[in-house]
Each structure stands twice: as C-alpha cells, then as structure tokens.
Amino acid sequence: MIRRSAPKIVKAIPPVSSRAAVVDIRYISNSRRKFTTAESGLSNARVGRPPDTTSRSSNIPTVNSDGEKTKIIWPDGRETTFDNYFLFDHCRCSKCFHEQTKQRLKTLSEIPSDIHPMSVEVDKTGVHLTWSTSDSHKSTFPLEFLRRSAYDPPLASYRDDKESRILWNSTIAQSPPNVLYDEIMSTEKEGSTGGRAILKLLNKIHDFGFCFVENVPTTGEKTKELIEKVAPIRNTHYGGFWQFTADLSHGDLAYSNEGLPAHTDTTYFTDPAGLQIFHLLSHPSPPGKGGTTLLVDGFYTASLLSTLYPTSYSLLSRLAIPAHASGTEGTMLRPPLSQPTLRHDEKGQLIQIRWNNEDRGVLGQGWTPDEIKGWYQAARRYDELNRSEDAEYWIQLKPGTVLFIDNWRVMHGRSPFTGSRTMCGAYIGADDWLSRRTALTKKYEIRKKSILDDNWSVGW
Length: 460
Description:
This protein is α+β, with helices and mostly antiparallel strands and 460 residues long. The protein is 22% helix and 22% strand. Residues 38-68 are annotated as: Disordered.
C-alpha cells in the first residue's frame, strides 16, 4: 500500500486559479450568520422617482423601480437589483402560492412580460409592491428574503450551513462522533429525547461525514429498526436491509474476505446512496482476524489536492468517469450520464465524492490525449492522499456499534479477514436523510430557524 504523509491544513482553503470551483468548507464549525429585518419606519416611492426618506429609519432600505428592474439600496450602502419578472414570479400571496402544499399556483405564461410595479412601499415588514395588472396585484417581500435571494450582485454575507462541516484526518480517532442507541429509540412523548437524538445523529453525520451509534442490540432486527427510525431504507439490487457473510452471494468484492481500499459505494447509480450503514454482528476470534474498518474524509483529501495540485483538482472536477456494476447475473448497472469524481453545487462548493476504482469503467471517450494523461496523474495524486497515514482512520468495529457514513463524502474500506464474519446494514437515500434533518431542525432547533415564515423559508 502506498504511504505518503500529507501536510495538515488547519484553515480555510484559499482560492485556486483553475477551471474547477474550489472546496469551500472549514475545519472548525462556524456560526451561521443571521439577518434582521428593520425595526421601524415607513416610506413611499413612485416609479421613476426616489422615495422621501426624511423620516425613515436608518435600518430601512431605499427602493427604486422602473419598467424592468427594482433596485434596493441597503442601509450599509450596498445595492441589489431584481428583475421585475423575477419578483412577481416569487410572490407568495394566497393567489400565487398554496400555503399548505408550498407550491406555486400561477404559470409563467400568466405573468405579463412587461410586468412592473405601479407603486412601492417599504417598512419593517418588507417591500410592498402594487403591480401593473388589471387587478392591481399586491406583493410583500420580507427584507430577509430579498437579502437571501439577491443575485445582482449576490450579497457576500449570506452563507449556508455547509460551513458547519468539519474536515478531519487520522487524529479523529481520539474523539470520533457518537450517539447512544437508547436515546434514539425513545418514543416521541413529552420530554422524550428520541427526535432530538436523531437530529443529533444527523447533525454529526452532516458535520463529520460519519457517526457511531453505541450500545445497539446485536441482532439484525434491532439494527433494521434503528435504521428505519432515522429514515426510510433504500432498496437496490442488493435488496433493502441486508445481512451477509463472505460468500460472494453478490458479484461484488464487499461479499468476499478481500481487503478493500477506501471508496464510495454505488458510483454506478445515477443517484449514489446517501448513507451507508454497517453493523458487525459477529466475528468470533479465534479463528477470526482482521476486517478492520477504514474511513477517509474525501472532502479533507480533496482540500489537500486543491491546495497542492490545483490543475489536478480541476481535472477531477471536470472529466466524467463511467462506472458500472456487472458482476451479478441479471444486473448491468451503468448510469446514462457519467459524472466527475468531484461534484460541486451551483455556488461552487464541493458536495459529492464519487471514488471507486474497482467499479470504474472504460474512460477517455471524447477526451484529448493530454486529458487522458492528466487524469491519470490527477487520480494517482488523489489516491496517494487517500492512502496516506495522515488521512486514514482505522477502527475495529465491534458488535453493538452501528456505523453511519455519508457516502457522498466519507470513503470506507477494510483490511482482509479470516474466519466467519456476519455484517448487516442498509442504504438510505441522500434526499431522505437530508429532508429528515431539515424537518427536525425546524422542529427542535429554534435558534437555527429562519426569521422568514414557512411560506418564505422553503424552496432554497
């Protein structure tokens, strides 16, 4: 196994001059910034004429509008411009937005192409627009919504909770994240901790990419019950909840006693599994030996790659890699659209690692010779970082400890083993666990609730 000691990074990743968006996550949890609405004041503005601000509060912005755009001048001097069509499209009055289903009620073709405000008012509750429709449609936009949705230009002070992610290396062994089984399984009654414990688990998975659940009964039934308490189990060609030994019942090396390098699962799915859950039910020793679990923070090693080899980071973010699952009779999985190793969201933040050398298909279709050579160099560099002693966290799982892994971030592997070893577990979809976390946050963590009401806090 290649060993290479990678340098430790303990600060935010600096900008990198490459075609890829850089990693934008932190090594320590940052507090989430909040915006406050104005406290008092009222002003009126007519189209094409600046409002009277002689008696208005300094916390209230100035708003000007014309036939195409509406400009907001914030108290700190920054300016934000919105297309009028955009604003009318995002009206959430009862005629435009269903309060219960949280869905739009009007189509784009119903909005006049020349829509514009006839009058503008601003107060502590927001910006109030009366539109040029036959019924003088009225819209109110909370100031927080306008700050958060600003795009021309974006307000740099708005961040989301991806910043709470904590990158880690092998030293995580000193204090790995964990929660207790009994807390999670407690019933939802007054004073119970069940829902809060599930949120605690999901927050740790979000922040660290993995979490242990301790003191779990060592049966498949109780393990399945635990998983279903967190979120619905995802069915795949392996089934839903699975329990197996090293019998190659599926055409995958996971069903052998071979060692496995750090990898993410189901890269051959259009939508790879969100969470991977493992519970070692038994591995009696003697004669059983080995089978130590390996975890690697793929976001941590990607941040190193971005800093040390920005061109390599760019190639792994741009070149799509085919993947397949072809070892089980009757199964031939190959996503119709290949994806790069490193995937980013619309803001350029790293959101997913797809790294599985064993399931990698035939690459290079449509690539240039330089891209072929460059990708191999980039992939080798990333592989070396993932295999470094700095990055590898080895842990011997024991019956009673269930491991939850964010399969979009943390790679897992194992050492070879001997003897009879029984493992159980399941997959959970990314959308399902993230939805559960969001819903529980809204229910329990009042300090993290948006100051926007329910109608304005959805759809981001």
